[in-house]
UniProtKB/TrEMBL annotation:
InterPro entries xref list: 6-hairpin_glycosidase_sf, 6hp_glycosidase-like_sf, Glycoside_hydrolase_63, MGH1-like_GH
Record-stated family: Belongs to the glycosyl hydrolase 63 family.
A molecular function (GO) term: Glc3Man9GlcNAc2 oligosaccharide glucosidase activity
Signal sequence bounds: 1-36
UniProt keyword list: Glycosidase, Hydrolase, Signal
Pfam families given in the database record: MGH1-like_GH
Superkingdom as given in the UniProt entry: Bacteria
Start and end residues of each Mannosylglycerate hydrolase MGH1-like glycoside hydrolase domain: 302-640
Native source organism of the sequence: Segatella copri
Protein known as: Mannosylglycerate hydrolase MGH1-like glycoside hydrolase domain-containing protein
GO biological process per UniProt: oligosaccharide metabolic process; protein N-linked glycosylation
């Protein structure tokens, strides 16, 4: 009782400082009850075991057939599960060779690629390539062991280049290759499968398995299919028409948004041999340049980025939605949180997490496909993560960002940076936001000395969606715990509200003063359903629709237009980001703003399509004044969460199964 009384006193002090009643504070302090549900019963253990088996089976099924499975180049076409490949290289008219093709590569001598289509399963892909005056498209059509690769030079293609067609084995798999002039046989060493291929084109020479073919005329590479150039072109046309027409019929006026979203997700999906899983990191550039190995490639998974990708996949690809939500959730650290980042070298940001959107993503996916085993698979990790926030990031009854110390695991260079102010800012997801300028860090508490309205709001939302998941799989006590905790934080969020300005602000834990440097995260209370209808109307009218702050031709900037940092136009200082638009839009869905929502979706769509239709790019972030994405080096050209801008339009126009928040 002595300990409980001390806890009552502590919580009571917090309550009085932010206006909570003592009875409510005591109720909320009991956030992790011990119950029979905390111990896995045999039936629950069986359900989780079966869920794991189903997931492994799903991953095996995903990694089948021809696709652009190798992260190192989008022109490497790989047959899984054996991992033999047709790798395309280019030799220009002066004899210079390039073997690496990545969308959005900013290297001074890198080829420029414009993606058009990429079905998730490799049924049809199309991409245009430009390098040293040589212009051509590469299209593929695959089905089973059959794969047609058609290379078509453009009318303005500079003559004299050669395409190098290289049948090979990758990732040190046990395959054999036999080559003759204009043909090859490739397959596993046990000869359980052999795929014959031939090349239609003007072969100039062969160097062992590498075959050099003139790019002055079309080239067809036919795997497990004996056909002429005309027949190959016919197959490509058939696959293209079927794929495009089917999607246009489904999405109609929203086809361009869908196609941009689906294409960036398709090209950014690959197989990683180190974990033996199909995943969809934010981009190949981040994965293959940062922590790649020459033999295996590499990957970089970020927390909220990957959950957003899983939500977009859920529109029409259950397996990839499951795969990405699962891989990032199962990356949970020893301390019990999903890390900000997880690399193929084994490093995880064990000091910090990122915005808690996992339960939103998992519930959205479940609501689309209604398979409870998927919930069973991820529930324990999501609950552990939810409890971690309350235990490790609470200060004065609300959440702060933090960076915690930990014992080194990999001794990777980043492990030496923990319990730092910058690490805590990274937990917000908004790496250099001016909201954190001048905010101090408490190295004893491991927290920024600022209660964060955005993280607290997302946490309340997480409690709500996780409670729904708990109800769905019969964990009633957990569901009540989560709702109690969510209600507690929602009530405490009144401490963020400034009645004079009609807005929510971050709040200093040192002196209780508001930090009036804002970002779209200050609209996140709409996600938590914290504002009254009257308060929500003020937020929207006085701030969101205010052209001096967030509204305009292009919306919505990560820094308001009247903030001195807006003109920095540098990363989270002034630029537009898909995830911020998406989360603000989701908050608007909780209130009666139909016209604002509609215009919000249209503006987001316009921004997204401006670059997608012109150049085939899906940018990491965009200029809030011009709508450009390519005006700064700190904007990856093919980063899948940029497609959230189009995803908003799909939701608004009823092209998804996303449940309306209640």
């Amino acid at each position: 009782m002595h300990q409980l009384n001390n806890r009552k006193l502590w919580v009571g002090n917090i309550a009085s400082s932010i206006g909570l009643s003592m009875s409510m504070a005591i109720l909320l302090s009991i956030s992790q009850p011990t119950s029979a549900q905390d111990i896995e019963t045999p039936s629950r253990e069986t359900a989780i075991k079966q869920a794991k088996e189903q997931y492994l089976s799903l991953q095996r099924q995903l990694a089948q057939g021809w696709n652009t499975w190798d992260v190192r180049s989008v022109l490497t076409h790989v047959y899984m599960p054996y991992a033999f490949a047709i790798d395309l290289n280019l030799v220009d008219s002066q004899g210079k060779r390039i073997n690496r093709f990545l969308i959005g590569d900013r290297g001074a001598d890198a080829p420029r690629l414009k993606p058009y289509s990429h079905s998730y399963d490799g049924y049809y892909t199309k991409i245009a390539v430009t390098w040293h005056g040589h212009h051509f498209t590469v299209e593929t059509a695959s089905e089973g062991t059959k794969n047609i690769i058609l290379i078509t030079p453009a009318n303005d293609n500079k003559p004299g280049a050669q395409m190098v067609v290289h049948p090979k084995t990758i990732w040190m798999r046990g395959n054999i290759v036999d080559s003759q002039d204009g043909s090859f046989v490739i397959g596993p060493k046990d000869k359980s499968l052999q795929v014959s291929g031939h090349i239609v084109g003007n072969l100039s020479r062969r160097n062992r398995h590498e075959q050099f073919v003139s790019l002055d005329a079309p080239i067809a590479i036919c795997c497990d299919a004996d056909m002429s150039l005309e027949q190959a072109q016919s197959v490509i046309k058939k696959h293209a028409l079927q794929f495009v027409q089917e999607k246009k019929a489904l999405y109609d006026k929203d086809y361009d948004c869908y196609n941009g979203m689906q294409t960036v997700l398709g090209w950014d999906t690959f197989y990683d041999p180190s974990i033996r899983k199909v995943i969809s990191p934010v981009s190949r550039i981040w994965s293959s340049q940062w922590f790649a190995s020459s033999d295996y490639g590499g990957f970089t998974l970020f927390c909220w980025d990957t959950y957003f990708a899983a939500m977009m996949f859920a529109v029409d690809n259950k397996a990839l939605a499951y795969a990405n939500a699962t891989e990032i959730t199962k990356a949970i650290t020893e301390a019990g949180f999903v890390p900000n980042c997880y690399y193929s070298n084994g490093f995880k940001s064990r000091d910090r997490s990122q915005p808690p959107v996992g339960s939103l993503a998992v519930w959205t996916i479940y609501n689309t496909y209604k398979e409870k085993w998927f919930l069973e698979l991820l529930y324990n990790e999501l609950l552990t993560w939810n409890r971690w926030w309350d235990k490790n990031r609470q200060d004065q009854g609300l959440l702060c960002q933090g960076s915690s110390p930990y014992e080194k695991v990999t001794y990777f260079r980043n492990e030496y940076d923990n319990n730092t102010r910058y690490g805590a800012i990274l937990e917000s997801g908004l790496d250099n936001s001016p909201m954190y300028d001048g905010v101090t860090f408490d190295s004893q508490k491991h927290l920024l000395e600022q209660n964060d309205v955005g993280i607290t709001s997302l946490y309340v939302m997480d409690c709500e969606y996780l409670a729904k998941i708990a109800d769905e799989i019969g964990r009633k006590a957990d569901a009540q715990e989560l709702r109690n905790r969510g209600d507690a934080y929602r009530n405490r969020m009144s401490a963020f509200w400034d009645e004079k300005d009609g807005f929510y602000y971050n709040r200093s834990t040192r002196n209780g003063q508001f930090n009036k440097r804002t970002s779209p995260t200050c609209f996140y209370p709409l996600l938590a359903k914290a504002p009254t209808s009257k308060q929500a109307k003020r937020m929207v009218k006085e701030h969101l629709l205010n052209k001096d702050e967030y509204w305009g031709k292009y919306i919505i900037p990560a820094t308001p237009r009247n903030d001195k940092s807006f003109n920095d136009n540098e990363y989270w200082r002034g630029r537009i980001w898909g995830p911020l638009n998406f989360l603000v839009y989701m908050g608007l869905r909780n209130y009666d703003f139909p016209q604002v929502r509609k215009e919000f979706a249209e503006k987001s769509k316009h921004l997204f399509l401006q670059s997608w239709l012109k150049d085939g790019y899906v940018f990491e972030n965009y200029n809030a004044t011009t709508g450009q994405g390519d005006d700064t080096l700190r904007s990856d050209k093919f980063y899948h969460w940029g497609a959230l801008l189009g995803y908003i339009s799909l939701i608004e126009n009823g092209k998804t199964n996303l449940e309306k928040s209640k």
